[in-house]
Amino acid sequence: MKLADQLADASNLPPTPGRRFLAKALPVFVYSIFFPALLFIIPKFFLDRWLHLSTFLNPVARTILGGSLIPPGLMFLLWSIKAQIKIGRGTPMPLMATQNLVVQKPYSYCRNPLYFGLISLFFGISILIRSISSLVMVLAFSVIIFLFTKFIEEMELGIRFGEEYLAYKRETPFIIPIPALLRRTNTGEKQ
After folding, report:
1. pLDDT band at 180 (very low <50, low <70, confident <90, very high)
2. Per-residue pLDDT tens for 140-150?
3. DSSP secondary-structure letter at 185?
């Protein structure tokens, strides 16, 4: 059985108290302890020193570039989670996956606004902390997210939501938010 099939099956399981707890507690651990340690603390304080990597960009450029990525990253991340909970009646975690396909804002801008927000936030932090190894780790993390999303999550959503998801997938960009007015249709015309 493919991973996409297993995730689709797991999303249909009834939400037990244990699954609800894990679906809420696991993201807190992952986003407040695991990712910061893996992507920022270890690279900045250990890898950069061990590899003798210098900092990059001047302080003003770092502040402008890193600082401009963090607010939209946070906005899309939190907005996406709220939409999954309120509209999708679930969470971003497969333990308590959404029961409804969410196609409203921010998911009308791109199919993966949560990942867009997370990646923007992480790149912004890496730039602000002046860590080359952190940037490399975030880039590797981004590639893993892209591959997982493209080859597993999209298959799982196709299994769960069928033609409704496939139609949404055809009309909505993958990860870069683009308002509908600026998108081109399959014929090349703006919508």
Report:
1. confident
2. 999 999 999 99
3. -
